[in-house]
Design goal:
Four copies of one chain form a homotetramer. Chain A folds into two domains: 158 residues, Rossmann fold (3-Layer(aba) Sandwich), CATH 3.40.50; 178 residues, Alpha-Beta Complex (Argininosuccinate synthetase, chain A, domain 2). Chain A has 16 helices and 14 strands. The first copy, chain A, has a five-stranded parallel sheet with strand order 3-2-1-4-5, with helices on both faces. A five-stranded antiparallel sheet of chain A has the order 10-9-8-13-14. In chain A, helix 9 packs across helix 10. The radius of gyration of chain A is 25 Å and the shape is elongated. The N and C termini of chain A lie far apart (67 Å).
């Protein structure tokens, strides 16, 4: 049944049969990784430890996944709760950097891959696994992230990427599963694949992929209502930030992971944070995805406005650049390149003053920051008011303008690009 | 009645009484510039030519403005239709640069100021005016733009800024107007001031200014319905672009100025393109404004997605930076700094391939680009598909990852910032 | 003798006669500030405290300056040694940021202005001076730096800029000096003005200004020999860095201020670190200056290479941008804009690993970094060697290239700008 | 003799034995490509066309190379003179972009690779070659450039990289050569490998590689004298630019390729343009190279200063960023990514005004631009002079400073990072 693969091992981090005894499998409980659990034992003649990491994915019943792994022959099956680590170590950075890749994508999957790699490295060491297996294909971003991060965190670790290696299509996988007694629960009507954690849910495949088609959101969305089906009544919420980190929701202090998940619920109800994005993959492909990140969108909208309020024009202009760089690097599997630590030093320093309260209106897909206050606000009513008693010294303006404009005036009158333009 | 001003002429471009005979006044027909029309004649003992430029402001009856100017003693009153110049010369650049200052502001006022300065320079020359008067205050951006651009375009021109010069507050202005027979039409209930052209309508003043207050949009908005009051039925429109420029709406070719104004109507109906922005003024102040730019938001949303579709990851990352720079410079009164011409050369070159059709859904404040097609689309179904017959060569991936990740792995294992971080 | 000034007070930070009693004068002992010492007493009817700050200028005899101030009627005359503060607080940042404005200028004057402003603010408070006077003209950068920093550090402070205010040219100043018994020591043959501290010596004026003329360096230079006159024998020195900061010279540990001054001597002997620069002033002018910063050039050359050695390609590319931004902001009188603190957080983080030894050859104007070593070096002999036993996995290369190039290949074959180019 | 290679074909652009009949070999005449000429015929059973491209390398006798190729069995041997194309199409862009990768490297090799790829693509088509072979190793940049560019310019072309494929070290190559009657001319004393064209000569290998060692330049340099051995007499030359392109040397008009080669001679004599660079390779390695680019250094030094003279502060700041981006992309094998065309549009636009004459002093390793003139110079003697009759309006300064500094002052007094800093 299984056709011969053309796959050849060329990377020195790829594990070779016979050279190891124990493999840690990043196990989700789905068809791919379940087939993998059996396939690795069969093809690599090694023990498999199944690791399932909880970073806030809502769809999974973690206990039954564990049981399923054991049923399929896993030597051990581990469920690891990384929700707070994920929020407190990684998502805080995403908030401070106003995470946004190419227009609305808060980078849930790239950030999730960092977390999973961190935990997997630790668990592999604890359980004596020389090899880590992941379920990514050979044309996506996630193979780059997993193999990159795992070998960075532990250069001795080897990896297996069975999907890249075997020659099974979806149909062959199902046949393989049936033959090996692996439970198959096909969702024929939804040809989409999802990746989910508390920071967002990304959908790919089917009509989503091709930009020419209008994606049938009603069938695609898992977290968010359509604006059309969301409440007719607006909801105004208040989020308090301390040094860039959200610490309370509607006056109630709570830990970040919980605050994010509550914002997902609120935002999902009002249909906010849904984006279609034709994204540029690391491997040079362009594909459209549908992203639901309601909580992330709310928190980042609020954070960004508050940050602008307490920052100067110089700060705001440079921060846009830094944030964009952060997003491209995070997406691009460069989380552990030292440049990221310097960017984090930058954003953390600016965020020291991002403290205050933000009121946000949610209504049928719209997130509107309607009011903000901060002890470090640079809005100065005395300076800004149109009233006559303002402290702003208008006498200074004419002199300012003369000098501010001097270079422009000089240059324009020495070489006139405008004339140049209309000459042609 | 008029208190002594503390204003002193310090800039060499400020006109001095007795040194000129004819002044061109940028005349809007409102209270400020109407008082000015009289005040300049009185204080500078000169003739005044009133110039009113049509760049798509909806509120004005241009003929009655002209008549009003003549009634107030203007030597001449000119109405100049610059709608097509504005769209075809300036707004095309805004679209190509995905105009966005600090989050949603399409820069209608800064762009309007460029247009007005261009026309005023020409008209001043035609009518022999040695001086141009504008109605801006001494704490805003527009004085910087007008005086900067006017003296750049013609270094011999002098300017007057009566509002900066006189010592009248709003109440004194009204008294002055009544005393001099200038019609006063006060909108007591709306303490807001507006600036309007086809690219957007900006509201300032009153509760809008202070970020702590929730602005009463219902009273403020002039162009857009609130999402709450907009139709319950979505509307899908299609815009076609050729080399970055919108050329048709729903299949109907039309000139750009018209297309923009139609999009304003459509977008206004669905309540899209409304932003509160706490913006950083050139003069160092922070003030909140409310911006309505429904047409601009629709066109820029569509343009940006189409541009992303036809551009590589390298192009998309650098374009974000270039666009942000463009926005800061445009806002910052640097339109004629030569750097802008190079930026335009850059954006125009990239836009050569921004050709195609974009479908946009409008619904209760939401603009969603739902489908795109372009002859230059970089989406390649054969490469991207999950199907087995894809042309993407997955065998290359492992080698790619090894080398792509080499520097990160090397650096992380030579100096570990992660350890450093958790040491503290 | 003194003509009527056209100067008018327009800035709210300008001190007004009669509104203060005690003025701190930034006193250098030269003609300008000596005339000022008398002129302020005469024109503002106030007491003057003279402050002379030692930041490593070599030309001055500080004790005689102090005595001169007292002779001219200063209420108090203070000499403040800020050499170590200057090196340890400010110049470390300059080294970490590879200080370079527009090609070789290590920013000695802008950094000196920060230091002087810091000290002056403190001394003014100690001595109860409500006003600070500086000797800058109205067309340079330093007025912007002094008035900006002084009012930032203490918004209540007022300033006086007598040179801007009075109407004396050089000749009138001399006459004023002679009339008031102020010693005049004219250097007729050298029409240049200098600003000096341990980080560099900048010369302006005369033939230096105009780019068309070849500046007669032999007459201009004060610190550096001409390459033509420097030793025929090279000298190789070694500098050790710890976390970005130079800590020893030729194996001898010493404090930074001393190390810098020794490098000035060494570099001056070999004629290195001399630049002509046509710089863009903050006030919109372009002027050429001649800069001697031998020590700074040596240290920055060494630092930059060491930093590159321990940094990844991503780090090196972004650092160029950050450093350039740092230089423009530092030059541009924005030291206390919060954005600088974030930039410093960035550069300090990267510099944590800039540790190691650098060998530098000095010879007739050339600084050549000839060898480097660092515990954090990213040079990896095993990876890099051409020898066959290299650990670099060449098998991965072809796969890398295929994917690395995919977007370029796709884009080029969808829209061919090359054809476009040659069509025209 | 020949060991079994571990090399496996993974990239879809790698040619496979039996699938093609005619191969174009990029032939230099050296040992590697001579061995290759035989080896390809032997291993791929195909005809070989040898192509040698003249882009100004000085070491080669092109006619004897051609003869050698024919002697070794080449079906055809072509010598192609691309000197003018190289200068007029590629090097003009390098000059306009002030080509500098990581400190002094004018990118001769990366630019040469573009030229060779362009010509090879054309010749391959003319001669019906389905495959192109290059002599690069599997750990360098040039494989990435060649395979990337060749497959971009013609996606149907396949490539062979014999050095990556075979398992011969240097010794085995010599044995292979001797066995096959290939002339071997070993330079035992110089263990360096060079790549040369008119834009520079790069040396690698041996002691050059390891940053800890001082490279014995006397043995390494091929183009340049050491400063120690260069003339004791300075030489002042004048270069004239028109729109960014050098058009005459010392008053004599000449074509660019000739002008560059003359500057190489002049610069080589005076020992200028020699750099050691620890560069970041595309494949993630760090290696030191020694670069001689005397002509490039002279022309870029001159161009950069002239460009600064005619450009505003805004232009100069942004150009640094653009140029750095250009250098990283050019080095990084992205010449045909569309982003480069936009960058070229940018730099070409700015260069429209880079016209004028530049005087450069050459002396013992130093390049000093001593004087410049341009019709578009922004130096304005009337504005800049210290003399009293200057047209600069000093009255405007105080007002300028107040407003220019307002945001900094406000921000510093709202959140004091300076206190924060010294608290810790």
């Amino acid at each position: 049944m299984q056709k011969e693969s053309t796959y050849q091992k060329v990377a020195s981090h790829e594990a070779i049969k016979g050279e190891f005894h124990k493999c840690l499998l990043l196990y989700s409980g789905g068809l791919d990784t379940s087939v993998m659990l059996t396939w690795i034992q069969e093809n690599y003649a090694c023990e498999v430890v199944a690791l399932t990491i909880d970073i806030g994915q809502t769809a999974d019943n973690l206990e039954s996944i564990k049981q399923k792994a054991l049923n399929l022959g896993a030597k051990e099956a581990i469920v690891y709760d990384a929700k707070d680590e994920f929020a407190d170590i990684l998502l805080v950075e995403a908030i401070k950097a106003n995470a946004d890749y190419q227009g609305g994508y808060a980078l849930s999957t790239p950030l999730g891959r960092v977390m999973i790699s961190k935990v997997a490295t630790k668990i592999a060491q604890q359980y004596g696994c020389e090899v880590i297996a992941h379920g990514c294909t050979g044309k996506g971003n996630d193979q780059v992230r997993f193999e990159g991060y795992l070998t960075t965190l532990n250069p001795k670790i080897k990896t297996i990427a069975p999907v890249r290696e075997w020659s099974m299509g979806r149909q062959e996988e199902i046949e393989y599963a049936e033959k090996h007694g692996i439970p198959v629960k096909q969702k024929k009507d939804r040809p989409y694949s999802y990746d989910e954690n508390m920071w967002g849910n990304t959908g790919e495949g089917g009509e989503i992929e091709d930009p020419k088609l209008i994606p049938p959101l009603k069938n695609i969305l898992q977290w968010c209502k359509l604006p059309e089906e969301s409440p007719d009544q607006e909801e105004i919420i208040e989020i308090e930030f301390c040094q860039g980190v959200p610490i309370s929701l509607n006056g109630q202090k709570m830990k970040l992971s919980e605050l994010i998940m509550r914002c997902n619920t609120l935002g999902g109800l009002h249909g906010v944070g849904v984006f279609h994005l034709i994204e540029d993959r690391i491997v040079g492909l362009k594909v459209r995805g549908v992203y639901e990140n309601p909580g992330a969108s709310i928190l980042i909208s609020a954070h960004k406005k508050l940050e602008q309020l307490v920052s100067t024009r110089e700060e705001n202009e440079l921060k846009s650049f830094i944030d964009n760089k952060w997003a491209y690097l995070t997406y691009g599997a460069k989380w552990y390149d030292p440049v990221m630590y310097h960017i984090h030093a930058y954003t953390n320093n600016q965020n020291k003053k991002v403290t205050g309260k933000v009121k946000i209106k949610l209504f049928k897909g719209n997130i509107t920051v309607v009011a903000l206050e901060s002890p470090y606000s640079l809005f100065n009513a005395d300076l800004a008011t149109f009233e006559k008693n303002a402290t702003f010294n208008q006498n200074a303006s004419a002199g300012f303008i003369e000098i501010y404009n001097l270079a422009q005036k000089t240059a324009f009158n020495v070489y006139n690009f405008e004339d140049e333009l209309f000459k042609n």
